[in-house]
Amino acid sequence: MLLYIYLIAITAEAMSGALAAGRRNMDMFGVGFIAFITALGGGTVRDMLLGNYPVTWTQHPMYIHLTISAGLLTMLVARYMHRLHSIFLVLDAMGLIAFTIIGCNVALNLGYTTTVVIMAGMTTGIFGGILRDILCNRTPMVLRKELYASVSLAVAILYLTLRHFEVNEDINMIASFSFGLAIRLAAIRWHWSLPVFSYAPGRWND
Amino acid sequence: MLLYIYLIAITAEAMSGALAAGRRNMDMFGVGFIAFITALGGGTVRDMLLGNYPVTWTQHPMYIHLTISAGLLTMLVARYMHRLHSIFLVLDAMGLIAFTIIGCNVALNLGYTTTVVIMAGMTTGIFGGILRDILCNRTPMVLRKELYASVSLAVAILYLTLRHFEVNEDINMIASFSFGLAIRLAAIRWHWSLPVFSYAPGRWND
Amino acid sequence: MLLYIYLIAITAEAMSGALAAGRRNMDMFGVGFIAFITALGGGTVRDMLLGNYPVTWTQHPMYIHLTISAGLLTMLVARYMHRLHSIFLVLDAMGLIAFTIIGCNVALNLGYTTTVVIMAGMTTGIFGGILRDILCNRTPMVLRKELYASVSLAVAILYLTLRHFEVNEDINMIASFSFGLAIRLAAIRWHWSLPVFSYAPGRWND
């Protein structure tokens, strides 16, 4: 089940990466490359941080083909994609939650401590988007927008708490997905966001 | 033979990195640093992705000294370098091909699957330039320009195909270099490029 | 002793990261994230380059909590921080030196060669700031400003030289800190900097 959501999620993330590449007028190669990195970059950074070799996608070439194909396909269908706006937001939110739970489990299996498990979940959830934005030369949106990384954090905490109390894994999944989707979509709907820190450049430390 | 081409290639890449640093008015340290990363960053990312420790250049301090020296030397000779424009394009193309073949071999020796072997070759070929552009705060050119990454892809496929049919390694090298150089130089000469994907920012997913 | 300096240093670096995030109007999450990466990113990159798993901070959750808290606290006290300008410059310089020495020791313990040991020290010293600047979408300052990376280089060389001659470790520390602080603060006071390489973009290799 989580695998199917994962496959849908990396496809959706790949398409969001392709659109970002299109905004920078990249060529076909750039589109495929950014699609791949947006979809699989978060898990890659997690694996490299945790020393979890071999890196997941190197053992599943299908993920590589899927994300690059989704990216290239986006070039053809981009003009119609605004009609699918709402569906995309839901898929993206489901991806964020799936990535977070998968990332937590990878770190749990390696025996890391709770704080690191949470960070592994969040890294999987948000780092693909951060790499996409770095490669497209813009300040990562995940650090500036509506609740997004915070949803990943909240889901990780809920998932680990229920796990700690030995709640059945399926029920835990359903709870985590319902909760995560609810707060993410509410955040989009009502523009919930975290307090912003604006600091005007001064002379020092500049 | 491949080693000599490799040494010439990292020198040429280091010099291209130094020029990029000069465009950003970096100091001597920045120039050496960008030169090093441009020349050896692709192989570093490949080794970190594949879990190929120790990272190659840590076992060959000579590569470090060579690339940093080449970068610093570039500060002195930059004004004369436009005269060597054509030579540089050839050296850069040879470097791209050499990096690609070396990267493929590293992944082959570690037993990775074909798709990953190709990606290891391309990572070695193009990631130094990507890191250079990120550090110089510009959108990576390799994702937007004339056939470049595609040459790396084509060379990787040709090399692995000939290898699959057990063609003699020397002949394979000669074929891969001839083919790669030919399409890269033709791409520069006649401005061959991949289709570009231009996507105007809309409201959604922005 | 070095541990205490290290804790003060990562706190100071986290605060500098938070201010940089504030200049980009990031939200609370972004501030904590950039603070963490600025403080612990250099050591992380070093560990990943050297294959030194598990990465240090994954074994010390306290470092994670400390740096993120320092970042968030900075949001509250930022307006008063310009008064502490001088103290900060000293803390930042001490951090640079502590990071450098710690980085050298990690590589020494792993048996790397001298050139790599020096690069490990410098990576620990400066890469947190480089990641901060990449994430804030600006050209890394460490590559353009007053002696900073060079201080890290000089300290690494002094420390390793004294170590080579089997100078007592405590005396070596005192000498390295005194020397490093002296040249860093002198560089700030009298605007010492390395020669800058300015290269006007031409047609070729662009």
From TrEMBL, chains A, B, C:
Membrane-topology descriptor: Multi-pass membrane protein
Principal location class: membrane
Compartmental location: Cell membrane
Domain Glycine transporter: residue ranges: 4-78, 90-163
Pfam families given in the database record: Gly_transporter
Residue intervals passing through the bilayer: 62-80, 87-108, 114-135
InterPro entries in the record: Gly_transporter
Keywords recorded for this protein, A-Z: Cell membrane, Membrane, Transmembrane, Transmembrane helix
PANTHER family membership: INNER MEMBRANE PROTEIN (PTHR30506), UPF0126 INNER MEMBRANE PROTEIN YADS-RELATED (PTHR30506:SF3)
Family: Belongs to the UPF0126 family.
Protein name (Swiss-Prot/TrEMBL): Glycine transporter domain-containing protein
